[in-house]
Write a structure and sequence with these properties.
Layout lengths: L2 E8 L5 E3 L2 H4 L5 E6 L5 E5 H9 L9 H12 L1 E5 L5 E3 L2 H7 L4 E8 L1 E6 H10 L2 H19 L1
């Protein structure tokens, strides 16, 4: 079952968040948080996050660049266990990275969700038009169709 859409919500006074109801059935008591390249936090099921992180374990100990990538990526991830009320603590590191103070927007993206600072999400939405998105996707599909011929 794909997850999509967005929900606005807030951290509580102790910097805990809940996974909004449209998405929470996909996640268990433990979740895997990762700082994403676009300034948000990606949230995966704990098993999926561990699987993804585990994919780095095949990097040779003698591959210094690969080991550096593994170290950096590992340092950007956290496993978090929810409390009995289904709240998850967002660490200072995660909040600082994503610019989160109080207000959040959670976006469903098929197999994971993204947590955005509301201000950053709204800024992004102002910069991007639906028309531009559809044009880019259409051009990409046309380019793919040409290469398949």
């Amino acid at each position: 079952m794909a997850i999509f859409g967005s929900v606005s919500h807030q951290l509580d006074a102790k910097n805990r968040m809940r996974i909004p109801s449209p998405f929470k059935d996909r996640f268990g008591k433990e979740i895997f948080l990762c700082k994403a390249v676009n300034g948000c936090i990606r949230v995966y099921k704990s098993e999926k996050g561990a699987e993804f992180l585990g994919s780095f374990s095949s990097i040779s100990s003698f591959d210094s660049e690969g080991q550096m990538d593994y170290t950096v990526f590992s340092s950007m991830c956290e496993k978090v266990t929810g409390d009995e009320q289904g709240r998850y603590l967002l660490s200072e590191s995660m909040r600082s990275y994503a610019g989160i103070s109080k207000n959040l927007v959670t976006v469903g993206k098929d197999g994971f969700i993204e947590i955005w600072a509301e201000e950053h999400f709204n800024e992004m939405m102002k910069k991007i038009s639906y028309e531009d998105i559809f044009k880019r996707r259409f051009e990409a599909e046309k380019a793919n169709a040409r290469t398949e011929l």
